[in-house]
Backbone:
């Protein structure tokens, strides 16, 4: 039996080239140093995937990793993490989803799945406890994600089987294809679906009947119950629970942080038409939850009348309402739901897909794209017929869709003629519906995220709309009022760094960032340390946990360094730095990135000239192998003496 | 007492299963839960299912060693694990699937309402599970059903003024 509880102690390694499956033990040291989830992921990537590897080649790994809290009693512990070298950014990539796939994998007795190679023909992996088989998936190839899941449930004659699968977008290796997991949750970002497609792996279906043992059952039970009570008593619980992420549409619009027209504006004139209240009034059917989640932020929506009558869909997020709404100047809710449903079925990341389309629309508006280049399509803002058409063309890589399937960075390079200015990405990943001009910390979070533009790595929520009470509870009075002011840059380097380290732990343990740790900010370092200690028996205190978070984050960065990333890539599109946000409370603001970045590098003990971690930092984190691999000559010892001027 | 279940409110989170199994196994073990959330994903329909604590309990009647007895305080049917010989008569005869079988211990197991303070009720955030005493819940249920009918009528264009 594995030394620590909470884990199953087993990893499945699947060699798709040779169709060979090995069950190998999880190393104790891996649990002690990397906890789980993206911690496990980066260690495997670091050890086995050469940084120069083509992410779509058989050399890349596709990893599904759970963590010690996944599938337990802790609120929203249903997360699964997918890790691979990203075909979108060509560096470290991961994504995270809720639902039931992660817990089921553990009930089947596995902490992790590691795929390498490429199957000669389409296959799926079937797991039922000890029974693990690669099976033919030719009949599933070409099917959309919802069909695939339904067919698998039917043919396996098991309504409780949990599925992770790709749609046509993954099959065609669209660089931002996602993996969908039961029930319709998305491993959205970084193009994990394309990696799965490149391996000819259509799906993983898993069913488990085992239990997850806990080191200190009584303490763990009481702590879990306490977390549930605290979450349900939290001030924002009623709103988050009722509306989910769409609830923030109106607030973001008010502070000028609701990207409109490909980030030309920070507020949308018709935001009320596409906000949570309208969505509920028109389409709400019922609340849906991920495993062990009292928040139930997902909803079932139905279109009750009009052209798309009868369409039912889930996972309509803030990002969806922005991406297929304000982002492309569309105020018709039903068509947003339709586009969301299409993206889910095709297996496209909603954020990247909608940004690719808004990018094309802006190029069209500016006259950069000619009629012929877009095959005579009308790309004017808000034209949903074109949007639907483009989604299909992207997923099947047809014509102009093939170009957009490459992501905005590559597409802009191909188009030239100044297109790059309108490609809203960082390190190749499209920017989510978060404007760094209206919330300065968000701008910083985008550039320091290890998977390219992203809001969920640092996830600064404290200053989103100002949570002074929470800022004080977490960080202390001395950080106020600036910490909670979205327009101030003071202490934001600190906020983002702490967020990144904590998020690395949350993603590795297996918790959700919407329910409990960041949005309903109830569970913080101390709580997390207790939960992990009671669950696993690992002797872990806050300091140790912080070190794990830092270690994971630094190793991801080191991998990126090997992939060629440095200081020069830690930047935002010029629009954020030069074009003042014209909207609402953010009027006149640009993102003042540099001073925040200085503070950030300082706190990370990274070299501010190269953006590389210093030797001292890496040694402190037991990452000597990283020092050797990057090369001592490229690294400096320490940068602690270079304290930046942090006054505003 | 028995558990009143309202599938309309169930979000499918499975917390009831997790906590139920934890109480008896000290492990999270859904296949050893006394309550199961039956999922119909296509329809997004989730139905929590458990023992009904029948008045005339067939499980208790068929048990050849009389291992299933009513708790005088909670009125729940409880299985005396020491007496149970694992013949599975109760499992076979319960028309509702209320009794399950634990192959590891070779014993039958079922919901015993946690001695009057059920774990599942504590953690069910939307309130889909309620511990109720007796028939008073029927009226509320009838109201719920008529509410649905009213909606139907309204959809058909019938004026109801409700
Ligand atoms: S705890 Fe409540 S909402 Fe969750 S699955 Fe059980 S009955 Fe449904
Ligand atoms: S187990 Fe079945 S027969 Fe026995 S009391 Fe429960 S529902 Fe009735």
Residues:
């Amino acid at each position: 039996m594995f030394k620590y509880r909470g884990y199953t102690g087993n990893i499945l390694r699947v060699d798709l080239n040779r169709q060979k499956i090995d069950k190998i033990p999880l190393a104790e040291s891996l649990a002690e140093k990397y906890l789980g989830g993206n911690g496990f992921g980066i260690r495997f990537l670091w050890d086995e995937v050469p940084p120069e590897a083509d992410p779509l080649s058989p050399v890349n790994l596709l990893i599904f990793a759970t963590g010690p809290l996944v599938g337990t009693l802790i609120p929203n512990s249903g997360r699964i993490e997918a890790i691979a070298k990203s075909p979108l950014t060509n560096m470290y990539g991961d994504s995270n989803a809720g639902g039931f796939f992660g817990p089921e994998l553990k009930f089947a007795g596995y902490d992790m799945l590691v795929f390498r190679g490429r199957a000669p023909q389409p296959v799926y992996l079937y797991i039922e406890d000890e029974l693990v088989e690669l099976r033919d998936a030719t009949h599933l190839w070409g099917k959309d994600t919802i069909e695939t899941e339904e067919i698998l449930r039917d043919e396996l004659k098991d309504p409780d089987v949990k599925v992770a699968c790709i749609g046509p977008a993954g099959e065609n290796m669209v660089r931002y294809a996602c993996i969908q997991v039961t029930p319709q949750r998305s491993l959205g970002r970084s193009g994990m679906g394309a990696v799965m497609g490149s391996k000819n792996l259509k799906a993983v279906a898993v069913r488990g009947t085992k239990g997850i043992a806990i080191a200190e059952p009584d303490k763990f039970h009481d702590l879990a119950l306490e977390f549930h009570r605290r979450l349900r008593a939290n001030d924002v619980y009623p709103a988050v629970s009722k509306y989910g992420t769409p609830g923030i549409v109106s607030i973001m619009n008010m502070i000028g942080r609701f990207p409109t027209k490909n980030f030309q504006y920070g507020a949308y004139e018709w935001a009320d038409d596409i906000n949570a209240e309208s969505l509920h009034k028109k389409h709400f059917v019922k609340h849906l939850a991920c495993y062990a989640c009292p928040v139930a932020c997902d909803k079932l929506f139905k279109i009750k009348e009009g052209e798309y009558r009868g369409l039912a869909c889930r996972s309509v997020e803030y990002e969806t309402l922005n991406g297929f709404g304000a982002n492309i100047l569309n105020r018709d809710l039903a068509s947003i739901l339709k586009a969301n449903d299409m993206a889910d079925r095709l297996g496209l990341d909603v954020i990247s897909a909608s940004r690719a389309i808004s990018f094309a629309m802006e190029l069209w508006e500016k006259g950069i794209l000619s009629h012929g280049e877009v095959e005579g399509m009308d790309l004017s803002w808000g034209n949903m017929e074109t949007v639907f058409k483009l989604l299909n063309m992207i997923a099947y890589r047809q014509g102009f869709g093939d170009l957009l399937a490459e992501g905005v960075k590559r597409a802009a390079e191909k188009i030239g003629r100044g297109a790059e200015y309108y490609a809203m990405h960082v390190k190749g990943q499209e920017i989510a519906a978060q404007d760094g001009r209206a919330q300065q910390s968000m701008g910083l979070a985008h550039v320091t995220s290890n998977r390219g533009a992203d809001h969920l790595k640092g996830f600064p929520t404290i200053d989103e709309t100002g949570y002074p009470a929470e800022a004080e509870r977490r960080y202390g009075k001395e950080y106020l009022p600036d910490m909670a002011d979205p327009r101030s840059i003071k202490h934001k380097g600190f906020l983002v760094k702490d967020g990144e380290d904590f998020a690395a732990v949350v993603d590795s343990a297996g918790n959700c960032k919407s329910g409990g740790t960041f949005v309903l900010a109830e569970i913080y370092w101390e709580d997390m340390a207790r939960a992990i200690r009671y669950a696993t028996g690992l002797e872990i205190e806050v300091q140790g946990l912080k070190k794990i978070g830092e270690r994971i984050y630094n190793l991801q960065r080191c991998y990126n360094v090997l992939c060629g990333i440095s200081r020069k890539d830690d930047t935002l599109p010029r629009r954020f730095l030069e074009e003042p946000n014209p909207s609402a409370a953010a009027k006149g603001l640009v993102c003042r990135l540099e001073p925040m970045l200085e503070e950030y590098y300082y706190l990370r003990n990274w070299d501010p000239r190269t953006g590389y971690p210093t030797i001292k930092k890496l040694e402190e984190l037991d990452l000597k192998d990283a020092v050797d691999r990057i090369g001592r000559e490229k690294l400096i010892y320490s940068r602690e003496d270079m304290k930046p001027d942090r006054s505003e | 007492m028995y558990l009143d279940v309202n599938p309309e409110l169930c979000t499918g989170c499975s917390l009831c299963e997790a906590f139920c199994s934890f109480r008896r196994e000290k492990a999270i073990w859904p296949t050893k839960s006394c309550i199961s959330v039956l999922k119909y994903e296509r329809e997004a329909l989730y139905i929590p299912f458990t023992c009904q604590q029948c008045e005339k309990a067939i499980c208790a009647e068929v048990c050849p060693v009389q291992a299933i007895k009513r708790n005088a305080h909670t009125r729940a049917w409880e299985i005396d694990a020491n007496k149970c010989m694992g013949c599975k008569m109760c499992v076979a005869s319960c028309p509702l699937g209320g009794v399950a079988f634990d192959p590891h211990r070779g014993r039958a197991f079922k919901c015993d309402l946690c001695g009057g303070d059920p774990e599942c009720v504590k953690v069910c955030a939307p309130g889909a599970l309620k511990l109720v005493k007796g028939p008073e819940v029927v009226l509320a249920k009838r109201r719920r059903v008529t509410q649905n009918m009213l909606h139907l009528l309204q959809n058909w264009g019938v004026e109801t003024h409700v």
